[in-house]
Amino acid sequence: MARALFCLSLCVCGIVVASVVTTRVGEYIVSDGDDLFFPQMGTPTTTNTTTSNNNTALNCSVLGDLREWVSPKEVWHNMSDEELMWRASMAPGVEEFPYERKAKVAFMFLTRGRLPLRMVWERFFHGCDRRLFSVYVHVQPEFVGEEEIPPSSVFFRRRIPSKPVQWGRPTMVDAERRLLANALLDFDNERFVLLSESCIPLFNFTLIHSYLTRSSHSFLSSFDDPRKSGRGRYNKRMWPAVTLQDWRKGSQWFEVHRAIAVSVVSDVTYYPLFEAHCAPPCYMDEHYLPTLVTKTHPARCANRSVTWVDWSRGGSHPKMYRRRDVSKGLLDRMRYGGRCGYNGNASEICFVFARKFDASALEPLLSSPGGGSSGMEPCVRVAPAPLFTRCHPTLRGE
Fold first, then answer.
1. Segment 292-308 mean pLDDT
2. What range does the record give for the signal peptide (predicted)?
């Protein structure tokens, strides 16, 4: 009898334990598992008579979550480079967006430290629709100057997780890809322009935004240089993925369409070859992107840059413009001194940015000896509106 009672007790205990375990596992699978993939939206508690109201509230919740996902407000995160590239390489299979999308231009600053010409850019962005642009800054990790940037600045908290960069090394391209990947997390970013701390805009925001977003091409210089500093840098170990006929050279400072940006961050074919076989005197930042775009998106490339730079003196660095160099004549030559193609037509506006400008050039770029509403007329004249003025109210949101 005692043995029978003992066996019965064991059976009862087993049933109780199994019931508890099943319940906990079920909760984990149904609840916690869903949390990994679906946002928590809560459970409607109202009666069936208010179903339509519930659906409206639910749709608003979904839309709010979608906007936060497609256009994140914060740029700081804890993703590794590998995780970041994987996340940024995602591209929608449906071309039409399920919300009203305004094409943004992502201004990506690759800097060593503080931005000496920040006030030029602050004036450039002042009063413009923030739905039309975004700012990203890659800086050396040891830099600690963010406290100088006020909360009202377009640069406030726009520093992305960064790593050390060495001139002429693959780390330079790593930084460029890192900037592109972070900017791609915002699905509203349509055009991506790489800038340095020595760059300035040559026109007002409205003109530049229109020039870039309405172009059917990306602006990246890519050419076949037969010299030792071009084809002479090609390494046969890249064959057959990259042949000598594929090899291209171009300026580091690019502007690209979203489709090209996705190709850059998702590239696992050409990047490893360049990283392994393009070391000084082969400079990866001069060859990787021009070659990649020639291989993957040749029809989208305008084969020219929109950033003015003066290499006429030769050497490994272009001319630096200082305080004494800044004049209306200089800036007008940069703006209107060329002739190029734009969407199949001839254009006198070929450059919308310029470099390299020293920190001493800040005052003459901002000063206005002759007065005027824009504060720039004596030095800068731009059509359709003066440089660095507010966005024209009738053009906002176009």
1. 95
2. 1-18
Helix pair angle (258-265, 284-296), 10° resolution: 110
Q: Which amino acid is at 320?
A: M
DSSP states along 21-40 = HHHHHHHIIIIIHHHHHS--
Angle of helix 81-88 relative to helix 170-184, nearest 10 degrees? 50
Residue-wise pLDDT for 319-339, tens only, equals 999 999 999 999 999 999 889
Name the helix (H) or strand (E) containing 67: helix 51-70
| H-type alpha helices, 278-385 | 284-296, 328-336, 362-366
pLDDT at 72: 82
| C-alpha closest to that of 214 among 255, 262, 154, 265 | 255
**Residue 150 CB coordination number (10 Å):** 9
Residue in this structure with the two tokens 């305080």, named with its chain if needed: 323
Picking from 347, 353, 239, 231, the residue whose alpha carbon sits closest to that of residue 290 is 231
More confident residue, 168 or 294: 294
On whether the CB atoms of residues 253 and 354 are closer than 8 A, the answer is no
Q: What are phi and psi of 195, to 5 degrees?
A: -135, 160
The band of 14, judged by pLDDT with boundaries at 50, 70 and 90, is low
Please give the residue that has the higher pLDDT: either 41 or 322.
Answer: 322
In angstroms, what is the C-alpha Rg of the chain? 27
Contacts of 318 (CB under 8 A, 6+ apart): 309, 310, 311, 355, 356
Binned at pLDDT 50, 70 and 90, residue 3 comes out as low
- Contact residues for 219 (Cβ-Cβ < 8 A; gap 6+): 212, 254, 255, 256, 302, 304, 305, 306
Cβ proximity of 360 and 375 under 8 Å: no
Q: What is this structure's pTM?
A: 0.78
Share of the chain above pLDDT 90, in %: 65
